Structure formats: structure tokens, C-alpha cells
């Protein structure tokens, strides 16, 4: 790190010294700027939260009563002399990149992002900066996503075949973001859509934000059990291994994730099918996003850090890394089982620059 850096590492998380606030901190702090509502980035226990206006509904679903200030995309505010604005990250509903300007420098912290089109959230917006903090979840050249049209043709064909055979189509994916993208992309005329109880409150938040989703029901709302044999069932991965699944009788199971690009991932999970669907950028998306910022210095976080740092240095960029606690599927899984991504119980303390 260098003197006067706008973002540095601290035990609590990524810290802006001149502004005296944190970005997606993993320990309790007085002031937290939140890029999005996934559990590894948005945790309960901070004194004050700032997030995009689009994130309000999903943050309330996940964190309940918090001191939340929201900011429309692109609107600038000043705090302790730091000009701050939030810009679409294209990851999930309300996801934002954090732009910081101070002392002649512009930094952007991306959080998680996706550059592919997605009808359930605002499209990724490249933001010019001097320093770009980027994720690297799928930061290897092997990760290249197929177009959504091809992807959802595959999902719809699988669902149609199962419905014709009288068996439910159980599609496992994370309840926040991935599930809503699945719902927005499938052909709802094939049959009824049943969702797990962890999914429906987030669906409601998406609908309240103006995102169009097809009608969905809980299994307890289905009076005619024969409907279940034609249904698409969207649920978190934990539900596939639970007794909840028995309600549907004969079923074909599938998992939607970017990790399905890896040979053997579906087999290890015990799923009948795997669909390569991610809410993160693939390798071309990461490289295109980094290039579009014009940044000459890039700081890489969670994912394939070493590979990306090495590649970016080979391209002539000044590349380094931050060690973060982002990218934890365990936290997201805990939330989907009814737990929470809670921080330690001690009250947040004011941080000195």
C-alpha cells in the first residue's frame, strides 16, 4: 500500500482513512458502505449503513431493522471531504460499485459484479478511475458464460421433458439474485412454479422494486398435488438434501451455478443436471470491465487472486491484492437455512483515521 491511499486493509475490513468509513466490513464498525445484500458483504451489527436505493428492500429482508441511508445511482455526496457515489454493478438487485474521490484521486471498489445483461437488476456501468478494486471469483480463462438465450433454452427443455414425464423439476440455486434471475428467464407457460420459503420474501422485494417475475407459490399453497408433477421448483441447495424435497415425489434435480463449468462439479453434488449460470463476471467480462475503467492500478480481491494479479502485471498494469473475507458460500448458506450473517455482539466503535 502507499501513503494517501483512499482504501486500505484493516481487521474490520476495507477502510477509507480520509472518509472514516468502511466498505462491506466483516466486523462491527460505526459507518459501513454496502455494495450489495449478499451475506459476505452485508452483515448485521454496524452503526450506520449506506447502500443504493435499489438495495433497500432486499437489505431489509436480510438484515431487518438497521439504520439505513440510501443513495440513488450516480448521486454524489460528500463525507469528511471524500466525494462518494454509487454506480450499478449488475450483480444482483441494488448491487453497486463505490466511487471515491479525494485529493485528486479516484478509486472504485466494485464489490461483486456482472457485465452480462440481466433483467432483474441495473446493468453494470464502467466508471473511470485511477485505482480499481475488483473481485476475481471466476478469474480464470476457462470461465466463459454462454448467452442467456442458450442457457434458458436448456433449462426450459429440461423442465418440459420432466413435466411430460410427470416428475418435478427441482432447480437449486441461491435464494437471493440467482433465483430471481432464473424466474425472470424461464418460460412460465410450461407449468406452475413453486419456490422455497427462503426465496419468496426476496421475490416480494424484487417485485416491489419493479422487477417483473412470473407468479410463484409455496408448496403449502398447492391444493392439487398433481400440479407438483409438472412444476419447476426453485430452492436453495440445502433444501435438496432435506426432507422438504419429499413433498414432490419423483423429481429431477439440477444446480444453477458458475461452478457447473467445472467438469465433475455436478457429479460431486449429486445433481442430475448442471446449468452454468452465474451472477459474477466471467473471464472476458472481468478483463473488459477492468479495461473500461482506464485504471493503471488494480487491486484484486476474493477468487483467483494470484492468477489475475499475474496476468494483469503481464499486461503492464500495476496489480496487487487485498485479503478479504468475501466470497464465503458458508455465510450465504447459513442465511438460507434461516440463520443470519451476524457480526460479533460488541457495539461498533468510532474509528480513528
From TrEMBL:
EC numbers for this chain: 3.1.-.-
InterPro entries for the chain: MBL, RibonucZ/Hydroxyglut_hydro, Xnuc_lig_assoc
Keywords of the record: Exonuclease, Hydrolase, Ligase, Nuclease
Ranges where the record places region Disordered: 334-353
Example GO molecular function: ligase activity
Source organism, top-level taxon: Bacteria
First-tier enzyme category under EC: hydrolase
PANTHER family: BLL1145 PROTEIN (PTHR11203:SF49), CLEAVAGE AND POLYADENYLATION SPECIFICITY FACTOR FAMILY MEMBER (PTHR11203)
Record-given protein name: Ligase-associated DNA damage response exonuclease
Naturally occurring in which organism (per UniProt): Caenimonas koreensis DSM 17982
Amino acid at each position: 500500500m502507499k501513503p494517501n491511499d483512499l482504501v486500505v486493509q484493516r481487521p474490520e475490513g476495507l477502510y477509507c482513512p480520509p472518509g472514516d468509513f468502511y466498505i462491506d466490513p466483516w466486523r462491527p464498525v460505526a459507518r459501513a458502505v454496502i455494495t450489495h445484500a449478499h451475506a459476505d458483504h452485508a452483515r448485521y451489527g454496524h452503526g450506520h449503513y449506506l447502500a443504493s436505493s435499489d438495495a433497500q428492500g432486499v437489505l431489509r429482508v436480510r438484515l431487518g431493522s438497521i439504520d439505513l441511508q440510501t443513495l440513488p445511482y450516480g448521486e454524489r455526496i460528500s463525507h469528511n471531504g471524500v466525494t462518494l457515489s454509487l454506480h450499478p454493478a449488475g450483480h444482483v438487485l441494488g448491487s453497486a460499485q463505490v466511487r471515491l474521490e479525494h485529493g485528486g484521486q479516484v478509486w472504485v471498489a466494485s464489490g461483486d459484479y456482472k457485465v452480462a445483461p440481466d433483467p432483474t437488476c441495473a446493468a453494470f456501468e464502467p466508471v473511470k478511475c485511477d485505482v480499481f478494486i475488483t473481485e476475481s471469483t471466476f478469474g480464470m480463462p476457462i470461465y466463459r458464460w454462454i448467452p442467456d438465450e442458450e442457457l434458458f433454452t436448456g433449462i426450459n427443455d429440461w423442465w418440459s421433458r420432466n413435466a411430460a414425464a410427470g416428475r418435478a423439476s427441482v432447480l437449486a440455486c441461491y435464494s437471493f439474485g440467482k433465483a430471481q434471475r432464473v424466474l425472470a428467464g424461464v418460460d412460465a407457460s410450461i407449468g406452475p412454479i413453486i419456490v422455497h420459503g427462503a426465496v419468496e420474501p426476496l421475490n416480494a422485494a424484487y417485485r416491489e422494486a419493479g422487477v417483473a417475475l412470473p407468479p410463484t407459490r409455496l408448496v403449502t399453497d398447492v391444493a392439487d398435488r398433481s400440479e407438483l408433477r409438472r412444476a419447476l421448483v426453485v430452492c436453495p441447495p440445502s433444501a435438496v438434501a432435506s426432507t422438504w424435497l419429499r413433498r414432490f415425489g419423483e423429481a429431477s434435480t439440477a444446480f444453477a451455478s458458475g461452478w457447473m463449468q467445472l467438469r465433475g462439479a455436478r457429479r460431486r453434488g449429486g445433481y442430475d443436471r448442471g446449468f452454468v449460470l452465474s451472477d459474477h463476471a466471467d473471464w472476458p467480462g472481468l478483463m473488459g470491465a477492468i479495461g473500461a475503467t482506464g485504471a493503471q492500478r488494480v487491486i484484486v480481491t476474493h477468487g483467483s487472486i494470484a492468477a489475475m494479479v499475474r496476468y494483469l502485471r503481464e499486461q503492464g498494469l500495476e496489480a496487487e491484492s487485498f485479503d478479504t473475507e468475501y466470497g464465503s458460500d458458508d455465510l450465504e448458506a447459513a442465511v438460507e437455512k434461516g440463520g443470519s450473517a451476524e457480526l460479533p455482539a460488541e457495539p461498533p466503535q468510532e474509528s480513528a483515521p
